[in-house]
Design a protein that fits this description.
The protein has 164 residues and is α/β, with parallel strands linked by helices. Helix content is 54%, strand content 11%. It has a five-stranded parallel β-sheet, sandwiched between helices. Helix 1 runs parallel beside helix 3, helix 3 crosses helix 6 and helix 8 packs across helix 9. It is globular. This is PIN domain-containing protein.
Length: 164
C-alpha cells in the first residue's frame, strides 16, 4: 500500500506496531505512517490499554538490554527496586514518542468493556483485541496497524502489517 493512499485517514495503532518501530524491526510503510502522523497527514489513534501494554513491554525489553536479563525479567527486576526506578526514563521516552506522533489516546469506557462478549461471539476476538475492535467500530475506523493475525479475518477493517 502507498502511504499517499492513507493521507487523511485515521489509523488504529496496536502495541506490536509501536514496539516494532521502537526496536527497529518494522517495515518502510510503518515508518512512513508514523512520519505522516508527525506531519499531520493522517491521524494515529490508540487506546489507554494499548499504551499501558506498550509501556510495560518496552520497560521489560529495555531492562533486558540494559541489565543483560534473559527470561523472567520481571521477577529479576522485582528483586532490585533501584533497577526499576532507574528505568523510569524508558517510560518517559515512550510517552514522549507518543506525544511527538500526536497520537489520539482513547479511554476505554465501561460500555465498551461490557460489549466484549458480543465481539467474542460475533468475531472470535478476545481480550484487548476485542476491546480494540469494539472501539474501532464505535469510531468507524477502517485501518489498523498491527501484526496480530487475529484481525485478518475481520472483513470490516484493513490490516496494515508493520512487518511485511
Amino acid at each position: 500500500m502507498e502511504i499517499k493512499s492513507l493521507h487523511g485517514k485515521k489509523i488504529m495503532v496496536d502495541t506490536n506496531a509501536f514496539i516494532y518501530y521502537l526496536t527497529g524491526q518494522c517495515n518502510k510503510l510503518t515508518v512512513e505512517i508514523f512520519e505522516a502522523g508527525v506531519l499531520k497527514k493522517l491521524k494515529l489513534i490508540t487506546t489507554t490499554r494499548i499504551i499501558d501494554e506498550l509501556l510495560f513491554k518496552m520497560f521489560l525489553i529495555k531492562a533486558g538490554e540494559i541489565y543483560g536479563f534473559e527470561g523472567k525479567i520481571l521477577e529479576k527486576l522485582k528483586k532490585d527496586i533501584k533497577k526499576i526506578k532507574n528505568l523510569a526514563n524508558v517510560c518517559r521516552n515512550v510517552l514522549k514518542f507518543i506525544e511527538i506522533l500526536d497520537v489520539n489516546i482513547i479511554e476505554i469506557k465501561r460500555n465498551t468493556i461490557f460489549a466484549v462478549p458480543e465481539i467474542i461471539s460475533e468475531y472470535g476476538l478476545i481480550g484487548n483485541d476485542a476491546i480494540t475492535f469494539k472501539i474501532m467500530k464505535e469510531r468507524n475506523l477502517k485501518y489498523i496497524l498491527t501484526a496480530d493475525e487475529d484481525f485478518r479475518n475481520i472483513k470490516e477493517i484493513v490490516v496494515l502489517n508493520p512487518l511485511n
